[in-house]
Amino acid sequence: MVDARDYLFIVIGLALYAFGFSAFILPQKVVMGGMAGLGSVVYFATQRLAERGAFPWAIPVGVTMYAVNFILLAIAYKIVARSFVIRTLFGMTVLSAMIYFFQPMFGSLNILPNDHLLNLILGSSIMGVGIGTVFIHNGSSGGTDIVAAMVSKVSNVTIGRTMMICDCLIVGSAYFVLSYSLGEIVYGLLVTVLTGYMCDLVINSDRQAVQFTIFSKKWKEIAKAVNVEANRGCTAFNGMGCYSGQEVKMLLVMCRRIEAVSIYRIIKSIDEDAFITQSNVNGVYGRGFDQIKVKSKKRRKKELTETSADAGSLTSAEVGTEAETQA
């Protein structure tokens, strides 16, 4: 489920992606993976033809992205879920429009002159943060996502592997279409990998929380202080020390990463000899944490049951009406 707040952040994320690509990647004439990379291949190829007078103009990246995405989405319409189609249509429209307007704006502007690698690193980082923001809020930018979604529906090939193959093919096409050198191909792969890495960092940091396991004789005092001062819940478990043979109480506490220091201070202020373990966890959902934004199976089953019941009642009514008519 995507609400108005999600759409706002999706637009912000797409704007970051479009800015990073148009201002840093495209001016360096590097072909990366995804639809942006395919649009770059078409743009550079038609630009060369236009300079020779063999083609009327260079096709903008945004135009190619939208046209190919639209064709892929039309093919995938009956294969993938309707919600995916709607989210992808919104995302690909906004992203293509932004790149279309940003391209001439930043096309001749060299923000970091004489530093090819730094341009690519900065552009990839901005793009990764942008697309990560889009994914966090259940958005989609289209491109190889559409191909991966279709392939996963009809085969056992994973989405990640399909996207990797598509990205490698797009980057490799620059070698044949644009006669790029091996070094330029490597730069394109570097941008693709770094963008994906930054995207993963954004997604994981948003969902990251901390889990504390606490062993202490003063577990009641610690639990009460965590409840009152940190406003976090505690769960107590019974355990037994295998060496001592004595029964012990173990507390389990979940909190945001930024709240970890406060939990440490609370524990140490009550029992400096407490035994504590801390571990990072991803995707903590429930009261006080993130909300699951997908419809549960129980809810779907309930809706299907209610729909079937309504249909059954309607059929019974129709049968009763028909019987009265015959009588």
Write structural notes for this entry:
The structure is a single chain. Helix content is 65%, strand content 10%. The model is unreliable at 307-327 (pLDDT under 50). It starts with a helix and ends with a helix. The longest helix has 30 residues, at 297-326. It is elongated, with a radius of gyration of 27 Å. α1 (4-25) runs parallel beside α4, α1 (4-25) runs antiparallel to α5 (116-136) and α5 runs parallel beside α8. A four-stranded antiparallel β-sheet has the order 2-3-1-4. By secondary structure, the chain is α+β, with helices and mostly antiparallel strands.
Features of the shown structure:
single chain; 327 residues; alpha+beta; 4-stranded antiparallel sheet; 11 helices; 4 strands; disordered C terminus
